[in-house]
Amino acid sequence: MNMNDVSLHRERPDVCGDAHPKALLRAVQEDGDFLLKLADQHVVSVDQFSRETLRQLFRLAAKYEANPNRFSTPLQGKILISAFYEPSTRTRLSFESAWHRLGGDIMSITDRSTTGIAKGESLSDVAEMFNNYGDCVVLRDNNEHSIEEMLGSLRIPIINAGNGADEHPTQAMADMYALFKWRPELVSDDEQKQKIRIGVVGVPNKMRTVRSFLKILSKFPDAVEELVVIHAQGNADELFGADQREQLESAGIRISTSQDMNAELPRLDVVYINAISWEGDTFSTYGSEFQLSAASPLKDDAIILHPLARGDELSCDLDQTPHNWYFSQARGAVFLRMALLTCMVQRAERVIDVV
Amino acid sequence: MNMNDVSLHRERPDVCGDAHPKALLRAVQEDGDFLLKLADQHVVSVDQFSRETLRQLFRLAAKYEANPNRFSTPLQGKILISAFYEPSTRTRLSFESAWHRLGGDIMSITDRSTTGIAKGESLSDVAEMFNNYGDCVVLRDNNEHSIEEMLGSLRIPIINAGNGADEHPTQAMADMYALFKWRPELVSDDEQKQKIRIGVVGVPNKMRTVRSFLKILSKFPDAVEELVVIHAQGNADELFGADQREQLESAGIRISTSQDMNAELPRLDVVYINAISWEGDTFSTYGSEFQLSAASPLKDDAIILHPLARGDELSCDLDQTPHNWYFSQARGAVFLRMALLTCMVQRAERVIDVV
Amino acid sequence: MNMNDVSLHRERPDVCGDAHPKALLRAVQEDGDFLLKLADQHVVSVDQFSRETLRQLFRLAAKYEANPNRFSTPLQGKILISAFYEPSTRTRLSFESAWHRLGGDIMSITDRSTTGIAKGESLSDVAEMFNNYGDCVVLRDNNEHSIEEMLGSLRIPIINAGNGADEHPTQAMADMYALFKWRPELVSDDEQKQKIRIGVVGVPNKMRTVRSFLKILSKFPDAVEELVVIHAQGNADELFGADQREQLESAGIRISTSQDMNAELPRLDVVYINAISWEGDTFSTYGSEFQLSAASPLKDDAIILHPLARGDELSCDLDQTPHNWYFSQARGAVFLRMALLTCMVQRAERVIDVV
User: Does this entry carry the keyword Transport (chains A, B, C) (predicted)?
Assistant: First the structure.
């Protein structure tokens, strides 16, 4: 290694700057009431959130991202219980970073095997314990029912950070936040805006990230010209879960399906790709025959979203191209979580403009 | 799940309110000297503590619990080393929550296998290391001699959070604190107070929680009309350890034993139950033939204490009854530990009324 | 255990006091520019550091150690990612204590098996994630190339806390800091100072601690009369790596080798001993035939350094002798790391005297 070259490089693509968050901030008018109402709400599913609540959350996230050093104490004196019974360093650190940036303290559980749960303690009793120890719980578990089992006993709010194959609501919010940062007019109420074509590479019925993303997409049908679900032949019969397609269509989203990604790419504005599906303690890979790279026939101004971590489906040669919005998406997830956590523990009034 | 019902419910039984802590606070007159003397004291055994020191600790715990948001900075700048070589999420989080609520920082060790100890490093050397890194150590280990091995090298105070089958002094303090919260007159010096009958379901010779609880009970013989040890037939010969029964009786506590829990229940004011005994890396279950439930013949105003986590010996159908003081006990443990930790690291003067 | 004797003893040998750091502080004149230039620098190897930068770092470390409670907020609002993919409680806690003492927050990774890396995620992608979550990374890994793989993607500074068998630069700095605390004239530019004879028991080609220590020694040849490398017969052929001996000699350090420790001891001022060499996931022991004890023929005023944890090569009967500077060395490592971390995250201006 050349020891003369160990300075870090702070140059970064525009997606890491503050121009996009500032534009998003301007595109939404503040209405703090929607944020104040999130106080003491559990966050289990995207279904809980209205379009306007989401808009206000994206606005607050954009305010945080546009002024990363301005709000350092809203969570002072608050304690987060970060319970990752299904280990996930990426998601855990994203939540913990969000909490620390706002001045709060954290207690982490990173291994289910060392807990009373392994000895047969009920999740209801664990929740009782949490009531005494902290002000908010972030839960990741491979059992999709764990969060429900805790709800009945909790007197502090809990946030679902991925429950088995079911949902991952803050991931979906972060996905949507990235999309609106990219083109803020999409989140506005402007009826003349240019709608987008979104391709989703994956199996909505099997992947919690895709399931949650489609749920949140259904709140913003006015932004979507068409949704194209791109899947392998073998998954055709199990593509959608019960009511999944109906929920989207009744919201007004036009859906098509395809098994030929490269045929679809030239007309897509956004490509959402993910290949991993968590199933209990293990995972399956779907659609590994689909691989995006700098050689893919993408529109010049198309962007790619990916919840990360990635596998072979997303080539690193895309990282330095303008198609790369997945890094911005990961970065924005921290600010989105900051916004949501602030509201859940009754501190929204410290950060909204007009109280 | 009904997504319209994900608000949390803050209604809670009175045991979580502030009426009881306030009553306890009034029942004891402050004498801060007893707390100031705890500065730089290790906490290994209940035996170290005088009756009056305990009374003052309970008073400070009650002050914290009655004003949970009033004291947020007494441990500012102090670092806790939370060393759980025997994993225990419940106890670890209770200590860590106590420390965080007072404004301190924490470094956690949750797994012995990743430490130098696993590679043969002596505990004396580990203690030397701790001297340089923090201001206080909380140690949980399945070897009862570990804490002694550290004492010789430590220049910062250490607190025993359970050493094998030996002791768990802060658990006993939390047990007693719950009992005094329930009926504050018991901690007063009033000679006319109504004494209580306490049943302990377990094997004092085998269980660290019971051992420590009986030790602390012997400091308050004026509160106890009778102690009934309820045990299975098979444990009759090993019920008490050396001097254990003698220590209680010489303190003035009348003891009886029984193998028929339901026959005893109608005349007990307090039932202390626990079925698990830690033995090295594993645990045994004692008295699983005894099971308390809402159908048990409890006195109307009897309370149940349990150090948790629970097994089949304590039915969940008791949770919503007034007999449930075990949740209050778990909650109070945080405030009790706050009181003790404050004193150990020389910050008592920041929280006592008159210095 | 005698329960009357659980107070801790704060008496400590002079090596833990503030006399030595204060003397070192006076021996170096402040030149803050060298510290300001460390902003946003990665720390991979001792080779990066000039003699004068090291002198200024030692000075700042001494300022911290001489006034341990004076600087409690320079890292307020900063988040450390403490990534110990190769578990090491000692080094992890030393870094985390340093960060906490300066008021920063921490997120820890203590187990590689729970991370995305175990699932095949590239270190480059992990580094991208870290950019969004923290302000500085401390990395320990058993793969010596891991840190290089991260460098290309990082926009926050990273510090090498041990990369396989390669280097451990902050350990070397802590070693040298201990040596200069012991005899501050050695760090001065005084040409009349009394040079020292240093014996190193170990295999420079195999041990990262020894490799890094010799690198830093080569920056201060004016302090060294002679360097004696003491090794077992079996290691004679592999004692030095490529250029390792040449680097020292071209810096002006006279080197000899020996296989008879006791014959060398009577003329050594400093003995640096270590027996463990990390090799991937495991370790080898070198030179276990060499054992220092209170019976060894040490000069009266000779000191012993050891990076710890120790094995049989360093007898505990030396702990209470004036030869013991290895405890001071471990203690000083915290302050040395405080100095380096402060500079890396652009907070040097908050602690230097003249800005």
Answer: no
Of A7, A309, A316, the CB nearest to C40: A7
In a domain, B95, yes or no: yes
Q: What distance in Å separates the CA atoms of residue A327 and residue A332, rounded to the nearest whole number?
A: 8
**Do A91 and A199 share a domain, yes or no?**
no
Residue A9 CA to residue A11 CA, distance in Å, equals 6
Cβ contact B342:B61 at 8 Å: no
- Give the SS3 label for residue B213: helix
Write down the ipTM of this complex.
Answer: 0.94
Chain A residue numbers with beta carbons less than 8 Å from the beta carbon of C120 are 311
Tokens linked to C296? 């060894």
Interface test with A, best of C41, C76, C82, C107 (most A CBs within 10 A): C107
Three-class DSSP category at B197 = strand
Are both C128 and C186 inside the same structural domain?
no
CB contact under 8 A, C110 and B107: no
Whole-prediction pTM:
0.95
Q: How far apart are CA A300 and CA C163, in angstroms?
A: 42
For residue A11, being part of any structural domain is answered with no
Residues B101, B83 share a domain? yes
Inter-residue contact A320 to A296 (CB < 8 Å): no
- Of the CA atoms within 13 Å of residue A149, those in its CB half-sphere come to 14
Count of domains in chain C?
2
Q: Do B93 and A122 touch (CB under 8 A)?
A: no
- Residues on chain C touching B108 (C-beta within 8 angstroms): 108
Could you tell me if residue B2 is inside a domain? no
Together in a domain, C181 and C256: yes
Residue B283 with chain A: CB contacts under 8 Å: 119
Confirm whether C231 is domain-assigned: yes
Least-confidence region, from A52-61, B235-244, C289-298: B235-244
Domain containing residue B341: 22-168+333-350
